[in-house]
Amino acid sequence: MSKRSFASWIEEYFYRPSLFGRFLSYLLSPISILWCLCAKIRRALKKPVDYHIPIISVGNLIVGGSGKTPVCIAIAKHMAKPAIILRGYGRLSHGLVLVSRFGEILCDVKTSGDEAMLYAKELKNALVIASEDRVLGIQKAKELGAHAVILDDGFGKADIKKFDILIRPDLKPSNTFCIPSGAYRESISNYKNADLVLEEGVNFRRDVAIQNETEKMILITAIANPSRLEKFLPPHVTAKFFFRDHYMFGKDEIIRLFRSSGASSVLTTTKDAVKMEDFGLPLSILKLQISLHESVRKKLDTYISD
Questions:
Q1: CA distances from 148 to 76, 118, 144, 267 (A)
Q2: Does domain 206-290 bear CATH number 3.40.190?
Q3: pLDDT tens digit string along 134-150?
Q4: pLDDT digits (tens, 9 = 90+) for 250-280
């Protein structure tokens, strides 16, 4: 099984399981119980360390995407000199990489990873740092003059003192079990441990528009749970090609797909577009923007100013 088809199978297993998938989930439930218990113990044993800078973590409890990146962008746009710190999944580098310094992009997308490059292009007021070690990233952000830190996917970092935001996914898993029976990284009860839980239609709004829309488009994307894009697609999308999350596209393979389809443009997400912008292809972009409720911004402002 290729990595692409395995990722598709995992999405089906977690969100739209077959009868076999449900049976497999039941068989794996003892491991899930152990996973949840270990996660609970690990969290209980960690003592949060104060790094003397406001830190906001944006995360979720499930495997895969739930809109963390656009939420981080929406938060950072309302801040002065923030630093975005993320692991940098899919990048071809290791260790700490300074991706951008307040609008100056310092590396290419293969070094940064797709999400980090998207942050760098969207946020001219921010530092963007890719680092597996978030503490090193925080220290670097302070050294370079950041006024606050946003941790992308930082809920599991219980050893860092921070303001925790969790996003409830718009695409709900088929059950509430932990890995491997279900999609939850930790017990669903951990929503109560967040300082703020975001839910679409309650405290934020999601707006999607297509930039450079053409009459015949093919969708090419490498995001987690790509089926969540379905409700935003116009009828003139003639074919869909899904790659595993953070996949680093090859120029030749994308050009081949485009030419064989007879399409007038490639429809893709902003996260994927940063990996295709030098391919010389007409791109149509699914532009997702998050509008935070005023109450959310006030809570964040209060935390930062305290």
A1: 9, 19, 11, 35
A2: no
A3: 999 999 999 999 999 99
A4: 999 999 999 999 999 999 999 999 999 999 9
Q: Please report, for the chain, the start and end positions of each structural domain, with discontinuous segments joined by +.
A: 44-203+293-305, 206-290
Global pTM exceeds 0.70: yes
Cα dihedral sign for 255, 272, 157, 172?
negative
44-203+293-305: CATH topology: Rossmann fold (3.40.50)
Q: Given this chain, do its domains 44-203+293-305 and 206-290 carry the same CATH topology?
A: yes
